[in-house]
Write a structure and sequence with these properties.
single chain, 351 residues, alpha/beta, FAD/NAD(P)-binding domain, binds flavin-adenine dinucleotide
Amino acid sequence: MAHDIAIIGGGLSGLALAAELEAAGADYVLIEARDRLGGRIRTVRVGSAAFDLGPSWFWPGQPRLAALADRFAIPVFEQFATGELSFEDEQGGIQRGVGFSSMEGSLRLTGGMAALIEGLSNSIPSGRIHLDSAVRTISKTGDITLTSGATLAARRIVLAVPPRVAAGIAFDPVLPGPVIRALTAIPTWMGGQAKLVAVYDRPFWRDRGLSGDAMSRRGPSVEIHDASPASGEIGGLFGFLGVQPHIRNGHTEAVKAAAIDQFARLFGDEARRPLRVFLQDWAFEPHTSSALDHTSPDGHPHYGLPHALRDIWDGRLSFCVTETAPEFGGYLEGALVSAEHHASRMMTEVV
Ligand SMILES: Cc1cc2nc3c(=O)[nH]c(=O)nc-3n(C[C@H](O)[C@H](O)[C@H](O)COP(=O)(O)OP(=O)(O)OC[C@H]3O[C@@H](n4cnc5c(N)ncnc54)[C@H](O)[C@@H]3O)c2cc1C
């Protein structure tokens, strides 16, 4: 049986769209490649504490994210930024109190960003969601083939996947050159990044008057922040790695060991005794990034839906992901903007 709408991708964009279509009584199905929902949102737990390996912040002035947290009664708290900052030079020399806390005032969620995914997926009947279902081909007739060989059909198809990942799907007929060029020109926001989280039995750096914020010219992490839960009952530090993807690839354990050494230089010897260390390398996640994303853009790209991506296959193939959002592109808020715009368009248009 053909569905009216197939949403491909169960990240925040795809799920938020599915939740809106569900509320409007539409006939849709959501197809997700991974064995979990959330896409770039990935939260791990140690005991009852949650640690984000993807996005961890939203900011004042992002109303949709705040409203969603409110709707699911998810407590919001400010990024911990009390105390001195640390700066590490190329030789590993440490200075305190230099610079400013770049993430002060940023907002986090108790339970991590996965709490949003949980809230959204609870509002969607499980029969509408297919996990472990990577889409391999899409035809103009509406037939969708998964890598498993299974097939399904839909009248309208929404690609809620990063544009460069979408360009890797086989389309029949082949999409015009300008469309493929437009897709591959759009960097996956943060797609080349890797995030390391070390969990401790308590946020010990706070005892020394340190905020957990650090900038480093030595690495392997270049930017470090406190990742502890609001309660502070357990500690967490996270770093964005500055080591290039092709250098860190295949060296997970060595990178983790170097990162713990660095945390010890910056915050003291207690850092050598983590309960757990997690390393999430987004650059090598084929459902998030392409090889083009191994080179990060200079600054925040100008996102939005390029002209070439409008009205494909008489409007029956469309894009709904943070990178195509008309505002807040790249951010979580952008994913919600995309879903909102898409839902209102889909519920009013006749294709
Ligand atoms: C390390 C890191 C830190 C970040 N920090 C922040 C932050 O603090 N604040 C912020 O606002 N934003 C941040 N971001 C960006 C944020 O994660 C994204 O804006 C948001 O998660 C994008 O959601 P999305 O649904 O649009 O895309 P995605 O989350 O990429 O979802 C796409 C989905 O499509 C699926 N998919 C892909 N290919 C296929 C296929 N062939 N078939 C079926 N399914 C497929 C994927 O598995 C995935 O679930 C960060 C990103 C990263 C990587």
